[in-house]
Specification:
Strand content: over 45%
Distance between the termini: 36 Å
Number of strands: 10
Radius of gyration: 14 Å
Order of helices and strands: EEEEEEEHEEE
Shape: globular
Strand order of the largest sheet: 1-2-5-4-3-6-7
Number of helices: 1
């Protein structure tokens, strides 16, 4: 299995999304550099947002304010992919080390309303990666 950021918990509430997990498949110390949660806009990889990741060994905890995504609203729907990076490695965030198949339809998270009719919600893709969906 490829190295990745294994998601253990997702907490969408109060205008923020908190993500907790651990690095999986990396060799050497996880604290080799400052780790960041990296959001990459699908279809526009030049649009990226970074947030501090608090590390404890290979465990991480990150949080992002969903209001930051309103600046990128483009039409009716937008998606962002989540990664963890230390500037050297870029690990896709997902959940693969469990027996749950079809997480996209099984693990459904609530929408976080932002500035009126705009909302953000986390979801798992068909490849069991974590992403964010934004809708006007």
């Amino acid at each position: 299995m490829k190295p990745h950021a294994e998601i253990e918990q997702v907490w969408p509430r109060d205008g923020r999304i908190r993500v907790i997990g651990r690095l999986h498949g990396t060799h050497g110390p996880a604290a080799s550099g400052p780790w960041r949660l990296l959001l990459v806009r699908r279809g526009r990889p030049d649009h990226q947002l970074r947030y501090e990741a608090h590390m404890d060994g290979d465990r991480f905890e990150c949080e992002l304010p969903v209001g930051d995504l309103t600046a990128y609203e483009a039409g009716s729907a937008d998606r962002w992919d989540l990664h963890l990076t230390d500037g050297r490695l870029r690990l896709r965030a997902g959940r693969r080390l469990d027996d749950i198949r079809g997480k996209k339809s099984v693990m459904v998270y609530p929408w976080q309303p932002v500035s009126g009719a705009f909302g953000v919600r986390p979801y798992f893709t068909v490849e069991d990666n974590l992403a964010l969906e934004c809708r006007a």
